[in-house]
Amino acid sequence: MSMALSIDSPERKTGEGSPAAAIGFATFVAGIVVGLGFAVDLGDEFVGGLALLSVLCIVLALLSRVAENTRKRVSAGEISYRAFFDHAVEGIFRTTPDGHYIAVNQALADIYGYSSPQTLITGLTDIGAQLYVEPGRRSEFRERMQAHDIVTDFVSEIYQRSGKRIWISENARAVRDWSGALICYEGTVEDVTEKFERERALRIALRQAEIANKMKAAFLAAMSHELKTPLNAVLGFSEIIRDEVLGPVGNPAYQEYAGDIHKSGARLLSVINDVLDVSRLEGGLLTIDARSENVHDIVDHAIKLARGITHDARKVEVDISDAMPLLHVDPRRLSQAIGNLLANALKFTPEGGTIRVAARVESDGGATLLVEDTGIGMAQETITAALEPFRQLDGTLSRRFEGAGLGLPISKSLIELHDGRLEIMSAVGIGTTIILRLPPKCVAQAPQALAG
User: Fold this and answer.
1) What's the pLDDT tens digit per position in 197-235?
2) Which of 104, 144, 302, 438 is the most exposed place for a label (fewest CB within 10 A)?
């Protein structure tokens, strides 16, 4: 059955037979009797009783007036609530604990595919069996109610009247009487089908992207042997010919060609290694093997790596105090990170420029390494792009500077594997400073003295 709100008309007047009229009449009669009592001298006690009765009649009249005003305010509130209930955008319901609708509004009828609240109430008589796609969903709803007296964001798949499936979100509370006995459940319903499907599609896409990344990393890792084995042969034999290990080549041009083959092969090997590192980093397959290492050795190895990439033998200034503590890091990966940055510095710094590596201990116990150059620099708006893998700031085939655009992103990821961070300060035509900040756990021992 539907819940009908019993609302008296606010225009109903207090007429004959109303408490106010009766009490007013009683007060009038009591006043006459008291007056007569004084006139005929019926005695002080009798007159006092009549006076008390008169006062009581007046009090009752005032209480009746208060009650009447209260009734009008309640009636007006019920009318306002009924209007809200009927015209609310969200579906509103009241159900019995065993799964029958007591009251619903038009919005809920629309969500469930019924023409009116009454047709919903008469047509949907068993919520657990008729509404939810999962039969046990109503039982779960009741269990949450019994445990907490409230249910929020209860998302379920349901059947509309036509049989179409949609997703809804329910928020409800238990209604109890003065003794704590459960009367009903009441709450709201929102159609979240579009939102739910969008989020589900996003979750599926993210899952597929994760799987694709792992598959890509696994494929590239498996292919690394197939790529590197013939390339190592090319590098080895071209080096033998270039250096004339087995005797004179005869024609000087052949020796020059062998040198070009070796140089191109070394560049190709470097690109392959970078691509493999990016794929492992993206797939979460690359880990670090931390141990205590001298900072000078790490930087020396990084300089050799950078020169091997660029074939640039220019001087790199090293500003590291002898009192610099050992670092608890993966020396190979940290050297790789610094080497990539130095390779960029050598590549983008013209002849006569300065390239510098420095290291220091911070006040919080962490360590900072800096790679500075006086090269062409970057505009602030291009720094973010430079940190993206395979992103070339100059993407044309005729660009001045070669490279796959992986050095800087790899360095950033390798520092983050140490729980550190990479920062870039740069200005066009002035140069670039890249700061590698390592946390205190990466400092193996405290320095005894630091150079100024």
Assistant:
1) 888 899 999 888 888 877 777 777 677 767 878 888 888
2) 144
